[in-house]
Design a protein that fits this description.
heterodimer; A: mainly alpha; B: mainly alpha; rod-shaped
Amino acid sequence: MKTLDWIIVGAYLAYVIWDGIRLTKNSKSTEGYFLANRSLPWWAVGLSVMATQLSAITLVGTTGQAYDDGMRFLQFYYGLPLAMIILCVTAVPFFHRAKVYTAYEYLERRFDAKTRSLTSFFFLLSRGLSLGVVIAAPSVILSIVLGWNEVLTIFVIGLSTTVYTMFGGVQAVTWTDVKQMFIIFFGLGICLFVIISHFPENVSITDGLFIAGAAGKLETFDWRFDLTSKYTFWSGTFAAFFLFLSYFGCDQSQVQRFLTAKSVSEGRISLLMSAFLKIPMQFFILLIGIMVFVFYQFHTPPAIFNPVEEAKVAQGEEYQKILQKYEIAHQARQQAAINFIETRSEETKQNYIQAQKEFSQIRQEAVNFVKKASGDEKFNDVNYVFPRFVIENMPTGVIGLIIAAIFAAAMSTISSELNALSTATTMDFYHRYFSRNATDRSYVVFGRFAVLFWGIFACIVATYSTRLGSLIEVVNKFGSYFYGSILGVFALAIGVKRVKANGAFFGIIAGVASVYLASSYSSIEFLWFNVLGFLVTVIVGYLISLFPLNKMT
Amino acid sequence: MVEKDNLTINKAKEMPDRCWYWIYLLVIVTNAILLLLFWLFSRHFSS
């Protein structure tokens, strides 16, 4: 990174913190601090909803995934529009008219305090830990690719976000989210333009798309019904549908976004923004990964994108032999790609497909070599593809802009989650059990300390999760234990009048337990856990409510 | 009484239900067309 890049990243950080803190004056009351006095316009809330979901690892990871696996990941979002419509009909008017601060508050009105507290506790546990991963993932990648100090990167990202969230409350979160979305897409737009301008003179975007298509990178539909396959049409439209219902409808980090809207209508439109824009937006991000793939048809890509792991094996004789084969395979693939572009005949296409296959096999050989050398069977360098590409190929200034965009993606998610963790801690525990009639000021002060606590907690979790690489996967799985079950308890609350408090309470425990058993003793992909948790919670909750004992509660 | 007044003001700002049915239909139709375009896009460049 050159001086100009540092200036851009520094200016971004300074502006975001200043912009967030200056909204402190609008956050003096409880409702102002946690819900922006329910006064925000739909477009700001809608952009905040999208910014919260778009984390840095989504930005960096999905571009890398498109490079490696193509556009299959797009299927993950096919169930989102329908989920948003259902939430517009149910959750948005429900929570808005109930005048709640947290989604879990409603569970006490419908069931009892223990069901509210348990659900809120599950949220705090899973979100608190996953927030650590949200901070750790980009920090690890940036520190490895740019050679920054890992712990320092974690604390710069984590604490700078904590500072403006702590003072400015939900207003700071929303308005900085809006600006961060513009920074992210401005950065990505410039990046796409620069990638395409780096194509050889006789290669157009259409040629690039034909190459990607021949390599099988543009598949947007996989119709196989396979529970062990991560991204298929069925897992995206059905299993992920439950995930989105739970994430947008029962997770405080998203519910709090639409609770800040001026009215039910504005809350609904803010969610429908995602229903209209999320799939095209994800397509655009994946397209950047595809264009990186095309770029590397004409420039030798690194065999291993993680520079630290690459450096460890680089001097070995065996690895050097793999690299020689890799370079030859790249040259052959490049020539095959040029031939295919020039003639676009079936024969040249088949030659290119064969060359691409041989190239992929040798890259896999290099990856397997690193796996063996490092002893890490789960080694995967997909997340390093995009940052490494940016650092090695983008001009000065654009590098700073992309790093600022990655920071923006991380911070927009972290701020919303900190804000939600603080609201749940304050309203579901402090207000509920310790101080029911305190002043506005005391709730705001407690809320600020809660943000600080969760910010420091998440930074500490982030520091540990980088040392124990597999913990990232453990925490991701851990989060998916709860989503389906939390959705189940809300479905019982809103949709099944007969269900009583004990049914809901033991239903959610059974749901979480069933997902734990499924993850421990089966190879079902994690998206299906949401369906399982939901069904078990609803069925067990309903059956328990049939017992006469529940008439008392 | 204050609550009731607020409720009246809020209700006046809301869009009528029948508008929402058309908006939801628009979301479904737009996304269906979008997925069809993606399918055509991937078929065109993969053929």
